[in-house]
Amino acid sequence: MIKVRLLRMLKEGSRYVLLEILWQWLGLIAQVIMVYCIARLLSGAYYQKLELKQLALYIFVALFTVLARLVFDRLYTEASFKASIDVKRVMREEIYTKLLRLGSGYRQNVSSAQITQMMGEGVEQLEVYFGKYISQFIYALLAPLTLFVILSQYNLKASVVLLVAVPLIPIVIMVVMRVARKLLDKYFQIYYGLGDTFLEKLHGMTTLKIYQADEQAAVEMDEESEHFRKITMKVLSMQLNSTIVMDIVAYAGAAVGIGVTIMEFAAGNMKLAEAIMFLLLSAEFFLPMRLLGSYFHIGMNGMKAADKIFDFLDIEEPKSGKELLEEDKCSITLKNVAFAYEKEEILTGINMNIQPGQMVSIVGESGSGKSTIAKILRRQNRAYQGSITINGKELKNINEASLMSAITAVSLESYVFSGTVRENLLLGNRNASEKKLLGALKVMNLLEEFKPKGGLDFVLTEGGSNLSGGQRQRLVLARALIKNSPVYIFDEATSNIDMESEEIIMNVIRKLSKEMGKTIILISHRLANVVSSNQIFMLANGKIVESGTHQQLLKNNGEYAKLYNAQRALESYAGGEA
Description:
Elements: H1 4-9, H2 11-47, H3 52-102, H4 112-151, H5 156-165, H6 168-203, H7 205-210, H8 214-266, H9 272-294, H10 296-313, E1 332-341, E2 344-354, E3 359-364, H11 370-377, E4 385-390, E5 393-394, H12 400-406, E6 407-411, E7 419-420, H13 421-426, H14 434-443, H15 447-450, E8 459-460, H16 469-483, E9 487-491, H17 499-514, E10 519-523, E11 535-540, E12 543-548, H18 550-556, H19 559-577
Parallel strand pairs: 3-10, 3-11, 6-9, 9-10
Antiparallel strand pairs: 1-2, 1-4, 4-5, 7-8, 11-12
Helix pairs in contact: 2-3, 2-4, 2-9, 3-4, 4-5, 4-6, 4-9, 4-10, 5-8, 6-8, 6-10, 8-9, 14-16, 16-17
């Protein structure tokens, strides 16, 4: 019921958990002293043997213990709060650090929705588990033993009866736990699945609207939500039933203890003051364990949340390379590279030699494997076969940070964050001067467009939704220019944008290669954009079927020539119609 690994990870928080137990235990001692004073007062009053000094002393001590109990409760609450804060801070740092270590290919192991749920709801459940449940679990074991040690001095028989009845509650908890474990496994499976579905539908809402599929999506969400509601009600029903059973056990145990106390007092084996102490403290044997029972569902949820987080933290990490790319120019060589998704071959026998400063294009019909090569070079897809070297160093052995510094990827998936234009550009280089930022905007023909809206201080909404598609892509490229890396990968960076923006972007891409000596890998479905490339690789069914310059490939009259001529004819027809 206690995750030892969690305690090891949260050393600072574990100190607060120990303090919680200490303050609860001292509060119990204060209560015992208060009950002792009350028992003496009642006994003395009954037998009329209470002197004024004794009365004053007992009342003073009783009031002092009440005050002490309030102080201990306050200290317990503070320790619980600090323990909760520590678990949130540490666990979110652990998840975030793990994401960084997994690198850009983390989605191969876990979805974005699961990460969001772990960072949010999962950590919140751990907060209650760590801040409340663990300390209560230990205190529930410590309290009955403490009371037994104290009360056994007055009557061993009644003390033993009360102590023996206490384990009935954890027995009930263990029985319920066996049932709950499978139920909670199913609960979390449905919960994370619902999160995945919701996030997917949210991201694709515009597409669903366009195809009038939003009503069907809503029906599917309702069905999954109803499924989740039913499993939630089963969990709550199980928790309620277990609480009722634990109440019965707790009150029955206290009743048995009270009955034995009365019999022992009637038999003359116990004084009145001692009997009053037993009557007032018998419930204290069971209340900590009963409270633990009420925290049971919190404990189970916390343990399952911890299991999910630990499963994520235990994902095998890619070996961190140590070699650095220190040169300003990069050559890239692929030898017999192959890649497969779940045994389905995507790439086979890919051989490429990309020299520094070259503009190399990878073309082919949709599904031919173009973007897969880009993802492998960016290390989003790691399970490739064959050899990929950059400046003679094997890709797998290159340090992640060094690789990310050397290669900049621009695609339709490149994200524009909410905030100012300046903040988005500075992601490329935190130390870039204002002159450099303005220069990047000017190159991309954005400076004049943004000036009336605040220039660098123009505030962008989430995803750059207050920009046109062309402006958004040009801003993404301006950010890439600020980074100034030796290698640029453009993966369909000009798709679905206006012709003016496409021409601006393509002019900049050509200048990066010809004038600035950058290594360019251009992936484009539109072959008119690759005409000036130093080398073109034509892919079909995951294989390179042709390679050469534009002129050479046209002379070959192969797959490239057929696709190029078909596109040219289509564009000429569309232009004539216009």
